[in-house]
Amino acid sequence: MAQTPVKVTVTGAAGQIGYALLFRIASGQLLGADVPVTLSLLEIPQAVKAAEGTAMELDDCAFPLLRGIEVTDDPNTAFNGVNVALLVGARPRSKGMERGDLLQANGGIFGPQGKAINDNAADDVRVLVVGNPANTNALIAQQNAPDVPAERFTAMTRLDHNRALSQLAAKLQVPVAEIKKMTIWGNHSATQYPDLFHAEVGGKVAAELVDETWLRDTFIPTVAKRGAAIIEARGASSAASAANAAIDHVFDWVNGTDWTSAAIPSDGSYGVPEGLISSFPVASRGGRWEIVQGLEIDAFSREKIDATVAELEEERSAVRELGLI
Ligand code: NAD
Ligand code: LMR
């Protein structure tokens, strides 16, 4: 019997990440080489024409797995029956914009999109928020979707995870694949904590293979500020690497993994207040993320985790005060 296509919705489809993402989804890299998909491209009215152009290009690739494309500016249409929702479109911070203004503007996007997911999505919907501030945007969407299991709302720290792998591999002159158990904790922001005390290279603890000064003064800030460094170099935020990380996140969520990093709703593990969408070491089994349990957290890591979690708590308080959740 022919397999029913999986509906994947991408918001901000005409943007940079959208352009780097859509072709990879349609070629089978998001879900697997034997899984047919339909794509829904959600944009704001001014960008619908550009998204239609991308849809024409998708047609022109004649991807065997791509069974349909819709382009719309209506969230209820875009999320109707959606199985995988990639929330990429967001309001960037503009000059002179205060943090509260940014959260308010994004609340105006992620609140209604959460509601549209609540009202229209398939029962098995999985949501990945990429648009910044990703963790708190995911919280806003989740809180506006009370009928969807809370655990289905996640935010992306996989790009940070991949950056950490790459920086450590370069330092130790080892292939990326030799590094296991890398973890990003907390927020997708400059406060995030890339943790080498649980990462392993050839069975040895990564933190013991590098000197402390490099770990503290080079590795952590390089990973945490990489997004800003890319913007400085490219004049635009990371796009292909962000799309690649979104593919990794969803592929592992659906197909399983023993260890990666993802921002998922906290169950209180490792002292992270329940409900915050915070990055953890996670495994995926049976299509569900699970926080890796039982790790010893030393004083250095505790301080770093507490700092990034405090920032998430501040963001949660701010969106509460704005009435967005
Ligand atoms: P972009 O400006 O090129 O594209 C954003 C697109 O979103 C635009 O086409 C815009 O029209 C659309 N959009 C805006 N509001 C929308 C709405 N309400 N519904 C649907 N579409 C809407 O930006 P980009 O480079 O593609 O980046 C997108 C977001 O991803 C940004 O917030 C960026 O900061 C973030 N980002 C996150 C990570 C991460 O690791 N989590 C990495 C890189 C970028
Ligand atoms: C990144 O990590 O590359 C982005 O989140 C940076 C940004 O602010 O868009």
TrEMBL record:
Substrate binds at residues 93, 99, 132, 163. NAD(+) binds at residues 12-18, 106, 113, 130-132. Residues 6-147 form the Lactate/malate dehydrogenase N-terminal domain. Residues 157-317 form the Lactate/malate dehydrogenase C-terminal domain. Pfam families: Ldh_1_C (PF02866), Ldh_1_N (PF00056). The active site is at 188 (proton acceptor). InterPro entries: L-lactate/malate_DH (IPR001557), Lactate/malate_DH_C (IPR022383), Lactate/malate_DH_N (IPR001236), Lactate_DH/Glyco_Ohase_4_C (IPR015955), Malate_DH_AS (IPR001252), Malate_DH_type2 (IPR010945), NAD(P)-bd_dom_sf (IPR036291). It catalyses: (S)-malate + NAD(+) = oxaloacetate + NADH + H(+). HAMAP family: Malate_dehydrog_2. Belongs to the LDH/MDH superfamily. MDH type 2 family. Catalyzes the reversible oxidation of malate to oxaloacetate. This is Malate dehydrogenase. It comes from Streptosporangium longisporum. The lineage of its organism: Bacteria, Bacillati, Actinomycetota, Actinomycetes, Streptosporangiales.
